[in-house]
Specification:
391 residues; alpha/beta; 7-stranded parallel β-sheet; 14 helices
């Protein structure tokens, strides 16, 4: 199978190797194992984006077709033709194409690919995260109108294709609207990444960990406030933050200010961006508990799988598909509630039997959601779609 792939995350070619962020590169390397050739249609980076290109594609059957720099969303939509023309030139060489979404150019790129089987991997919902946007009312109105338009156009083209979604919420959203709808689990984990241990919280200070995008919607300020509550109660505890802020975001200064207000400025450590793989996974191995305090509905965070795979018990907020996926393998608390978050941490610190149960159940659950398992199942279904078995 000669499979194309499009997503808005940039990639570059350097010294004969394709480089991109690790969370996407690991998926594509796994997918390439089921393809005769995997052809990537990805944008050239904006200035300053090279720092996150930490992963080299290993598979020899992967080829990169560079698209122009993304630019702003309005610019991309107004000049969609300059992207679709490049894609159209290569369609005769492909048996099918996979689009990861949501992404601003998905409708235009899917429309240009009508001559071959199309597959969609939908991993989020722009509309679901709208309420957490911190924008003036007039700008939020414009953004909402665009997101609604993009969502409807995405659905229009997805109805014609094979669609994978990575959450129960998205599955419910599309049930009855899309005929060929499948569920999958998105992950960065390979079988070789797992780290087994029986327990944590054996030494002081207790190390809390968050990894991922440094975004206020992830509840980062709630984590810092919860840390303040725990420290005020006499707990010897610290918070490690690993990840990257969005361009132009002031989240790091907000974290610093909140930490100072809660008396924990010397207990919050920001370590910057770390590459997916040994560099990032070392933080899970050294952590006692993993926190994610998302404030609104979202798909299942891949970082929870990463924590569970490294025997790190999880405390998460009860939002989106997290309760459905963790299946009793993590402590769940209400969102936007630092006191509840602090109690969730204390519950695991003070009850080793619960902590060890979460470690074992989480490890077993993550073992079922490796790249080898999930991508293998996806590739088999794509092959069947290309061969017309779902017609």
């Amino acid at each position: 199978m000669r499979l194309g792939f499009y997503y808005h995350i940039p990639a570059i070619e350097k010294d004969g190797k394709i480089l991109m962020p690790g969370y996407l590169g690991r998926f594509l390397d796994a997918l390439a194992g089921y393809c005769q050739e995997l052809v990537l249609f990805q944008h050239l980076p904006n200035p300053g984006e090279n720092a996150n290109f930490d992963y080299k594609i290993r598979s020899e059957n992967v080829r990169l077709i560079s698209l122009p720099v993304r630019g702003s969303v309005p610019n991309r939509m107004l000049h969609a033709g300059k992207f679709t023309k490049i894609l159209e030139r290569h369609l005769p060489q492909l048996d099918a194409i996979l689009f990861r979404g949501p992404t601003p150019l998905l409708p235009a790129m899917a429309n240009a690919s009508k001559t071959i089987p199309t597959i969609f991997l939908i991993v989020g919902d722009y509309l679901a995260g709208f309420s957490s946007l911190q924008q003036p009312w007039w700008r939020k109105g414009l953004i909402y109108a665009w997101e609604l338009y993009n969502d409807r156009r995405q659905l229009h083209f997805a109805k014609r294709g094979l669609v994978f979604v990575n959450s129960d919420i998205l599955y419910d959203k599309f049930t009855g609207k899309i005929e060929n709808l499948k569920q999958t689990r998105t992950t960065t984990l390979s079988r070789d990444d797992f780290f087994k241990r029986e327990d944590t919280c054996q030494e002081r200070p207790i190390r809390l960990l968050y990894t991922g995008r440094m975004d206020p919607a992830k509840g980062l300020l709630d984590m810092v406030s919860a840390l303040g509550i725990l420290a005020a109660e006499g707990e010897d505890i610290v918070l490690d933050l690993v990840g990257w802020p969005e361009e132009g975001s002031d989240i790091l200064s907000q974290i610093e200010k909140t930490a100072a207000q809660n008396g924990v400025a010397n207990r919050v450590f920001y370590h910057g961006y770390k590459a997916v793989g040994p560099e990032l996974f070392a933080y899970y191995k050294n952590a006692d508990l993993y926190l994610i305090a998302s404030q609104a509905s979202e798909g299942f965070p891949r970082t929870i799988w990463e924590a569970m795979a490294h025997s790190t018990p999880v405390v998460a907020t009860r939002v989106g598909t997290i309760p459905d996926f963790v299946k009793g393998a993590a402590g769940l608390v209400p969102p936007k509630d630092p006191e509840a978050l602090a109690k969730g941490v204390i519950n695991l610190m003070d009850h080793p039997e619960i902590r060890r149960k979460y470690i074992k159940k989480g490890f077993d659950l993550a073992s079922q959601n490796t790249l080898e398992v999930q991508v293998g199942e996806m590739a088999n279904k794509i092959q069947a779609w290309v061969e017309g078995e779902y017609a």
